[in-house]
Design a protein that fits this description.
Blueprint lengths: L7 H17 L4 H18 L24 H13 L1 E5 L3 H5 L4 H7 L12 H7 L9 E3 L10 E3 L4 H4 L3 H5 L1 H8 L4 H8 L21 H17 L14 E9 L10 E7 L4 E5 L9 H18 L9 E4 L2 H10 L13 H12 L8 E4 L9 H14 L21 E5 L3 E3 L3 H14 L5 H5 L13 H5 L4 H10 L6 H8 L16 H7 L4 H19 L8 H12 L34 H29 L2 H4 L5 E2 L1 H7 L4 E9 L6 E2 L6 E4 L2 E4 L1 E2 L2 E3 L2 E8 L1
Helix pairs in contact: 1-3, 1-16, 11-12, 12-14, 19-24, 22-23, 22-24
Protein name: RNase H type-1 domain-containing protein
Organism: Paramarasmius palmivorus
GO molecular function, one term: nucleic acid binding
């Protein structure tokens, strides 16, 4: 765990989810249609007309339906439940259009909501020619303040009255239909209760609004953000004819489950826009912020065309986004399948194609944080400062809308990460690995408590680029309590002395070998001196702005890294496990000085794992069987019994022994010199048929 060693189970589970997503969003229509038909059969025939990949249906098991459902679909369903994720359809407009079977809606409702009508109501309506929802009801207008509700269509009354049974239920049927809102029908189709708490940013019912209407609403929201922004547009005349955008994320490279703050800005002489990516939850990153900034700049240029500048220029400091927009916008959509911001890129392409004026739009890269005084550089610097101000702004800037209208038809969703457009294989693998790490049976979790130590990600080079992974292997076995020290082998097999092989009056534990054993003291001393020298030169660098007292405290802490000192949470060093003490507790200013914090911790980490690798390599070299194997000599039973005179038996072991090979003198590995005298393990062989009893004797 922690070194990306593959797990066959996790690979299979992740591939099952990735394969299901690929089939449902396939760019070849026939493959997509086959998967969609299978999903429809799964929904209606096996799950009571409720979507099986979201909501309470994830708690069911469909592994028993092997004849009617592909096993890969059932496996993906189980993995989604295990990882607390789901597959959301991003287009439920058939409910808003009313192009859905009344029988389908009737079956998806719980019994308590349809008990007022005969159970064969859908069949009775079908017999008089009413099959779809839009034949019997319409929706109230969609407004920002009210969710649409069903309105009974008067034109359906004469048709219903032709049925003698339905005629008497007409008032009940009318009130029953008008009791439903668009939100309640969407929740029913997923098997969710009507009172289900739906977050406003990712509300399920909004997916039933047609894609075009959602897009128009989102563009209107962004335009209003620009017009209602209290910050005035820059009046610098040198900015005429150009726009600049930028994104900002804190921390710059967040961990997958680390909270973050992302925002973007777009400026020109006619507008200033600032918004956050709070709706994206933990999926927000700097790439999304940069692309969203470019999108808003293009959108606002389209809405405010300038006759005096037919070819506007947009500047961004994100070279990846600029290169992708300039080179890949006209590629087929399936080329964007692995792009984590593909919904935003599709939105940009649609805006560009709908531009009112035909002049080409130029998107250019501008280096950031330079000393240049050119108008593009100054405009980008202003956009960067505006975007960075969002992290400390009170109240917080408004959140930008999610581009669900340009997402894949089926998109991975999580309550913590919102809609996930990144690689589903890596995301599911990460979730499964974290789940395994927090299980009670996971050995490293009982070896090391991560929350007490520094959580800064380690440098990637020793684990992904180095030609030798010996240090990583030592960590893996140490965290799993698998390093084959004498104490570990004694606990497992009981046929070896648990004491230190080098004469210490201590158990040979992992901690003793790496921290206390004098046999390796010169390794620790050399590593400590080298680390102190490295840390001293590191903290004196100008960009870190550390005071003399802070520098001295950090250097002092580095000299105590390889010993049981107060800098460690439990006063017990864990450097050989690849963990570091939280240096923000030693120097409080490092909690905000992220750059210095990361540099110091990563340099300590490299020194620690190198020392652990050297110590364990020397231990294995000295204790290898070829160096510890004694010379075999012959002796007699009488001689051994004579040696054993006056010796007390402390342990009796019975092992297989071939009496035809004679009796062998005990090997020298069991002779230990300790401060209290000589401790010798002598074996007193006593022939018993085809076996020999061996006694551990102590003088």
């Amino acid at each position: 765990m922690g070194f990306d060693f593959p797990s066959i189970t996790r690979i299979n589970d992740s591939l099952a989810v990735q394969g299901l997503l690929r089939d449902l969003n396939h760019h070849i229509p026939i493959f997509k249609d086959m998967a969609t038909v299978t999903l429809s059969d799964w929904t209606c025939a096996l799950n009571h007309c409720r979507f099986p990949l979201e909501g309470p249906s994830l708690r069911r098991s469909f592994l028993q339906h092997k004849r009617s459902l592909p096993y890969s679909f059932s496996l993906a369903h189980r993995v989604l439940h295990t990882t607390n994720t789901s597959l959301r359809p991003t287009d439920l407009s058939y409910l808003y259009d009313g192009n859905v079977s009344i029988r389908h809606i009737f079956n998806s409702l719980p019994y308590s909501l349809k008990s007022c009508l005969p159970l064969n109501t859908p069949i009775l309506l079908k017999n008089i020619g009413i099959r779809r929802l839009n034949q019997i009801a319409t929706w109230s207008p969609l407004t920002c303040r009210q969710i649409p509700r069903l309105i009974f269509s008067p034109a359906a009354s004469p048709q219903i009255c032709r049925s003698q049974i339905l005629r008497q239920y007409l008032p009940i049927l009318k009130s029953w239909i008008e009791s439903f809102s668009l939100k309640s029908l969407v929740h029913a189709s997923f098997g969710l209760p009507f009172t289900y708490p739906d977050p406003p940013y990712t509300a399920l019912w909004t997916l039933s609004i047609p894609r075009a209407a959602r897009q128009r609403l989102s563009e209107l929201i962004l335009t209003n953000f620009a017009t209602s922004n209290p910050r005035r547009p820059p009046q610098d005349p040198t900015f005429t004819g150009l726009s600049a955008s930028d994104g900002s994320t804190i921390p710059p490279a967040p961990l997958p489950f680390q909270s973050r703050s992302s925002a973007f800005s777009s400026i020109s002489t006619s507008h200033t826009l600032l918004a956050t990516l709070d709706a994206f939850a933990l999926s927000a990153n700097n790439q999304l912020a940069e692309v969203y900034g470019i999108l808003t700049a293009i959108l606002l240029l389209r809405d405010t065309p300038r006759p005096d500048n037919p070819s506007p220029v947009i500047y961004s400091d994100n070279s990846n986004a600029v290169r992708h927009l300039n080179n890949a916008l006209n590629l087929p959509s399936y080329n964007w399948a692995s792009n984590p911001a593909r919904a935003l890129y599709r939105w940009i392409m649609d805006i560009v194609h709908r531009r009112h004026h035909t002049a080409p739009l130029l998107i250019q890269h501008i280096p950031s944080h330079t000393s240049s005084t050119s108008p593009p550089a100054r405009a980008n610097d202003l956009a960067d400062r505006i975007a960075s101000s969002a992290h400390r702004s009170i109240p917080r800037p408004p959140p930008a809308p999610l581009p669900t209208f340009f997402m894949d038809d089926y998109t991975l969703f999580s309550k913590t990460h919102s809609y996930i457009e990144s690689n589903p294989f890596l995301y599911i693998s990460n979730i499964l690995a974290r789940r395994s790490a927090y299980e009670a049976s996971f050995r490293p979790a009982s070896t090391l408590l991560h929350t007490l130590h520094d959580l800064t990600p380690p440098p990637t080079y020793p684990y992904t680029r180095a030609t030798s992974a010996y240090s990583a292997v030592v960590q893996l076995y140490a965290r799993s309590s698998q390093l084959d020290t004498n104490f570990t082998k004694f606990r497992r097999f009981g046929d070896i002395s648990p004491w230190c092989s080098f004469g210490c009056a201590e158990l040979e534990t992992t901690h003793h070998i790496f921290t206390e054993c004098p046999r390796f003291a010169h390794f620790r001393t050399h590593a400590k001196d080298s680390l102190v020298s490295t840390t001293t030169s590191l903290v004196q660098r100008q960009p870190y702005h550390l005071t003399k007292d802070e520098q001295a405290a950090i250097v002092t802490a580095s000299s105590q890294l390889f010993a049981d000192t107060d800098i460690w949470p439990l006063k017990r060093t864990r450097y050989y496990l690849g963990s570091m003490p939280n240096i923000s507790d030693i120097v409080h200013s490092l909690s905000t000085n992220q750059r210095a914090h990361t540099a110091i911790v990563q340099s300590w980490h490299v020194a620690a794992i190198r020392l652990a690798g050297r110590i364990w390599g020397e231990y294995r070299r000295v204790t290898s069987p070829s160096r510890m194997r004694p010379e075999r000599s012959k002796t007699t039973v009488k001689e051994m019994q004579k040696l054993a005179c006056g010796v007390s038996i402390s342990e009796l072991l019975v092992i297989d022994f071939d009496v035809r090979q004679g009796y062998t003198w005990p090997h020298l590995a069991n002779l230990d010199i300790v401060p209290f005298g000589v401790r010798v393990m002598l074996y007193n062989p006593i022939p018993t048929r085809n076996k020999t009893a061996f006694a551990m004797l102590r003088p």
